[in-house]
Design goal:
With 89 residues, this protein is mainly alpha-helical. It has three helices and no strands.
């Protein structure tokens, strides 16, 4: 059995990866905001958000599906707000 410290170190590594990926996602969100502004497209896209959340729920399995949907609700909220800031709205 792993020690508490070993498990925490592993979680720290996972969290560092999540932070890197979150930063990259936010960089891409800014690019999306620019593209949407140029095309005159709305910031919100509920169909796309549902598609992403569904894929994530399927990827994590039934045990974590509800949790990952809540996670993506938060990610989408943050992403929409960032897009609005980038667009100056």
């Amino acid at each position: 059995m792993k020690s508490l410290n070993e498990i925490r170190q592993e979680i720290d590594g996972v969290d560092a990866g999540i932070a890197r990926l979150f930063r990259r996602r936010m960089e891409l969100v800014a690019e999306i905001a620019d593209a949407k502004r140029a095309m005159g497209t709305a910031v919100t896209d509920p169909g796309r958000e549902r598609e992403i959340a569904d894929k994530a729920a399927e990827a994590v399995g039934e045990e974590f599906a509800d949790d990952v949907r809540r996670l993506y609700d938060a990610i989408f909220d943050i992403s929409r707000n960032r897009q609005r800031r980038v667009q100056g709205a």
